[in-house]
Structures are given as C-alpha cells and as structure tokens.
Design goal:
The chain is mainly α. The protein is built from 24 helices and five strands. It starts with 9 loop residues before the first helix and ends with a helix. The model has no long low-confidence stretch (mean pLDDT 94).
C-alpha cells in the first residue's frame, strides 16, 4: 500500500522533533503511541508544565514558518502542524488548562487510563508500572495546582462536571475499584511476580488511591463551591473548540439548522425501516420487538467480547479480500472489555511498530448485562474495519511516506469520527447491513449523532430549542437525548454529561461525516468518468490524519 521510501525533509525533521518533544512533555501520550522511554512518569499538569508546553509550541511554530516545503507531503505537514500549534497556543492564552475538567477526557481520567495501555508481559514491565503508580501523586498534585489557580482567577469548570468526576473517582478508589484490582491481579505472562514487586505494586497502588481521594476531596471542598452554575461555554470559546475538533471552520448557526434537518431525515428513515420490519408499527414498537428477540441478544460481557471479536475478524477477512488493501500488520484488532464502568466505546491505535495492536474498548456501566447485536453491529464497523482501525492503522503503516507526527498524532476528531460514520454508511452500501434490524441499529447511531449536533451547539450557544419553548439547558438536553436514542438511562446520562463538559467534540462526528461526503462528492465531480471510489479512499487514508480543511484542499487542488 505504500510507495518507495521518501527522503526526509527539513519539515519532516521539525515534525519528528515535535514528536520527541511531546513524548518528553507528555509521557502518557508517549505510551499511547508506543514510545516508552518516559513510561514511569506523567505529564506536568501544573501551570508551569503548561507554560513550558506553550514555549515549546512557539519554538516549533517558528521553525515551521521559516521552512520551505519541497513537495505536497511537506505542504500538508506544514499547514496542518502549524494550525495545530496555533490552536494549542490559543487555548493556552485563554487559560483552558485552568478549567480542564470533564467526565471523559481530562487529566482526571487520563492519569488513570494510561495504565490500560502499559505493557504487562514481564516482571520488568510491572516494575515500570509500579514506578508510574508511585508518580500518580505528583501528577495529581500538579493538576490540583492548575485547578486551584483557576479558582483564584475565576476560571472554573461547571459544577455538574465536578460532581460527576467526584463520583468517578469514588469508583477508582473503592476497595474493589481500579487501583486495588489492577495491582491485585498483576501477573506477567512469563511467570510469577517476585514477592517484593507484588508488595511494591500494592503499596504504590495504595498511594495512587490516596492521591485520587485527595483530588476528590479538593474538588468537593474547594472546586465545587467555586464552580460555575451554567454548562454553556459561549459562542467564542465554542468556536475555538469546534475548530479544535474539526480542523475546519464552520458556520455554527447554519450547522445547527442543518442538524435539525438531518435529525428529521434520520427519524423518517427509521420510521420507514420500522414499517418494513413490522407494517404499521412505530419505531418504538419495533425496538421493543427486537429487544425481545433472543436471537439478537448477548448475555454478559464475555459473550459481548467474543461477538465483537468474531464480527471484527470476519469484516477484516472479507473486506481485505474484496474492497480494501489491508496490510498484514493491520489485520489484528483486539476487542476488549474496558476495566472501567463509565460507559462509552472507544478505539486505541497500534504502537508504531505494531507490537501492541489496535484495540476496541467497551466500557460497560455497572448493572448493564445484556446487549443487542442489531443495535451494536455498526459500532464494530465504526471502531474497527473499515472505520477507525483501518484509518488509523493505515496511517501508522505508511511510514515510507509519512513522518511520525503524520502517522501517529496528526488529525482531529472530525477527521477520525467523521470517517467512522462515513464507514458505517459504506458498510450499508456494501451489503453488510441488509438485515432491516441492523440498518435500524445503524440509523439509531446516526440519529444519535445528528441529535448531538443540535444539542451541543444549542446548549453551548444558548440557542432557541427546536420546540420553540425557550433556551436550551441541561434538563431539556437530557429529555431531548432520551427521545432520540434507544439506550439505557445510564448511557444517556453519561452521554449528555459528556457533551456538556466537552464542547464541540460530539458534533464533530456527524459534521465530520458531512464534510467527508462533501469532499468525496466534489472529488467525484472533478474526476468525472475517471472517478474511482477505491482510489479516493486510498488517497485519503494514505494522507494520515489531517484537519478537514486540509483534507479538502489536498484532495481537490489537482
């Protein structure tokens, strides 16, 4: 799939140097991409750590601006990396780090989550784990320092996010919580842990529990009383985050209206399929019918994991033989049940050398024990092949053409999640969702993503509600989401809290899909009778992750 090895350029060298800098400044990011030289420590989450990051970003940006591109690959690298660095500096300038707290993607979760990705095959691996467990307190202290400075300056997160994260931490630090079980179940693949190392792991896990309990106490006694009552971040800050997650500038008001229209279209399509399954029945009635179908039900997380793996393996084998060129290194995708119970399904990419494969994770909330295959089939395609795993794995594989930053770190949520939703529709086109129930499940997800566009922009910009009965708020958002998804209440509550605390991210899925489809259609128009969908996909994926404005420019310029 890759061409002859390209001679690295000055811009490649700047990008590689930036990756090295990031690995040093953010060892958790290093672990994600398989750079383990700093794997026994954490990022500096304090104000001083963020200031150092900003200094390094300015230096890298200055070097890029002084460099001259030698070819189209260089042009994309300079455009996209410059854009990312400028955006990071804008976020630093508005002191976002002083209020960086939400239920899914803030240091409160990142410090814990990195342990999910650490190697644990040998006793030496567990020694590194023990040292990093011992470093949790320093990471948490630095994070509290930033949040405390935010309180001093009046730059604070919403109280709703603080309260929810306190609850999360309680699950991490419980007697049967993550840290206790993680250390207690430690076992290398090549034998037994030495008794001294087992004690060290237990001691350091205990220290990590104490550190997180101290974080929760700080949030309870200092942060929550100072936190904001409202959830909305306002138009200016929202526009910045929208650009962050899309790598594109959009008209927020037009997108809100489009979201309302797209949601109506998804509802009409669902109603049509419901009538196909059971003539005259409503969507809700058909969902209830399908939920009672034992042939479409999985019981327990083991059955869920096995079904995910079998479905993924089959898609890789069949699509790799017909519609895509899938390298051997990408043909392994591990389907995992996450060690947490927060809700959500996510993907983590392979390491640069593929020693750790791509993984699909399902975080199953407490009490959820049954799963419907008709509803979740499209999720496997979204997270796996032809979704995230093909997209991210292909970029990682393409080392002959792309520098490390382009392969491993570049891109946005809109590029990645937009592609994954694009891939869901592609699987329908390829016949993998011919069962009307499976198509209904796909549309359930697409409807949810359309609803999120409306909800997210509506809440954070203080828009008029679709029913015309006032301005968006959290209570209406929860009811609105409940009407537009067929999910357990635990999932809906988590999802809405996520949107309220992570502005601009949730719409990037559906808006990203919209932009991917616009780019494809414009590309097809430009190529005329020479258009090949397979060639379009190859060109787009070989580019690696990029902002969506960069994607459009790069594919349509010739």
């Amino acid at each position: 799939m890759t061409e002859a090895t390209r001679t690295p350029t000055q811009i490649d060298a700047i990008a590689e140097s930036w990756v090295d800098t990031l690995v040093e400044l953010s060892p958790t990011l290093g672990t994600y991409i398989g750079r383990m030289e700093h794997a026994d420590r954490f990022d500096d989450f304090s104000p001083a750590g963020h200031a150092r990051f900003a200094d390094e970003a300015r230096s890298a940006l200055s070097a890029l601006e002084a460099a001259t591109p030698t070819d189209p690959i260089d042009e994309i690298t300079r455009t996209d990396l410059s854009s990312e660095l400028r955006l990071a500096l804008e976020l630093h300038d508005i002191r976002w780090n002083l209020r960086d707290l939400n239920v899914i993607a803030s240091p409160a979760q990142e410090i814990r989550e990195v342990f999910d990705l650490m190697p644990t095959d040998t006793a030496e691996d567990w020694e590194v784990v023990a040292r990093r467990l011992g470093a949790v307190k320093g990471a948490v202290d630095g994070y509290m320092e930033s949040l405390r400075e935010g309180v001093r300056q009046g730059i604070v997160p919403a109280r709703r996010q603080v309260v929810e994260v306190i609850t999360q931490i309680g699950r991490y630090t419980a007697d049967n919580g993550f840290f206790t079980e993680f250390a207690g179940e430690a076992a290398p693949a090549d034998g037994q842990l030495p008794a001294s190392l087992a004690r060290e792991l237990a001691d350091q896990a205990g220290a990590a529990r104490v550190a997180y309990d101290q974080l929760a106490e700080f949030m309870r006694t200092e942060l929550a009383p100072a936190a904001g009552e409202g959830d909305a971040v306002g138009r200016d800050m929202y526009a910045l985050h929208s650009r962050r997650f899309l790598g594109a500038v959009i008209d927020l008001d037009e997108t809100y209206e489009w979201g309302i229209e797209e949601l109506a279209r998804m509802v009409a399509e669902q109603e049509s399929i419901a009538n196909e399954i059971s003539p005259g029945a409503s969507v809700e009635e058909v969902v209830a019918l399908l939920e009672q179908d034992p042939s479409r039900k999985l019981h327990g997380t083991q059955a869920l994991q096995e079904w995910m793996q079998a479905t993924s393996d089959r898609a890789i084998a069949e699509l790799g033989a017909t519609h895509f060129d899938i390298p051997e290194q990408i043909r392994t995708l591990e389907c995992m049940i996450a060690p947490t119970k927060e809700g959500g399904i996510y993907y983590t990419g392979p390491t640069d050398d593929f020693s750790r494969p791509g993984r699909m994770w399902w975080s199953v909330p407490e009490g959820v024990t049954e799963f419907d295959t008709w509803r979740e089939l499209t999720t496997v395609y979204h997270e796996g092949v032809p979704g995230h795993h093909l997209q991210i794995g292909q970029a990682t594989y393409n080392r002959a053409q792309l520098n490390s930053w382009r392969r491993l770190l570049a891109g946005t949520s809109g590029h990645a999640e937009g592609w994954a939703l694009y891939a869901e529709r592609l699987m329908q086109d390829l016949g993998y969702l011919d069962d009307p129930a499976d198509r209904l499940g796909m549309l359930d997800g697409q409807r949810m993503r359309a609803a999120r566009v409306v909800l997210d922009i509506g809440v954070h910009l203080g828009k008029q509600r679709p029913d015309g009965a006032g301005i968006w708020d959290a209570e209406y958002a929860l009811a609105f989401m409940g009407r537009n998804v067929n999910m357990p209440d635990e999932f809906v509550r988590f999802e809405v809290n996520r949107y309220l605390g992570w502005p601009g991210q949730a719409p990037s899925y559906k808006v990203g899909q919209r932009i991917w489809e616009q780019v494809r259609d414009d590309y097809a128009t430009a190529r005329g009778t020479d258009f090949s969908i397979k060639e379009f996909h190859k060109r787009a994926l070989d580019m690696g992750g990029v902002g969506l404005d960069t994607l459009r420019t790069a594919l349509l310029r010739d």
